[in-house]
Amino acid sequence: MAAAGNAPGLTDSDILIDAARGFQAAVDFLAEQRARAEVRICVVSAMELIAGCGNKAQSAGLLDDRV
User: Fold this and answer.
1) Where are the domains positioned within the chain?
2) Does pLDDT of 64 surpass 70?
3) What is the model's pLDDT at position 63?
4) Global pTM?
5) Three-state SS across 2-61?
């Protein structure tokens, strides 16, 4: 079996939530993944992020300033 290398995979919601909260390790991980390939999330992870937002303004720029 070949190694995944830079192949894109799904990013877990825990990483996304940590990045949204400003945890530097998660922010760095997403930035590195973004530089190598697309960051992909499933619809369940997207909904978890949206559900955790208090209002539309929070959800609009959820990760924009983190990665």
Assistant:
1) 13-60
2) no
3) 58
4) 0.68
5) CCCCCCCCECCHHHHHHHHCCCHHHHHHHHHHHHHCCCECCHHHHHHHHHCCCCHHHHHC
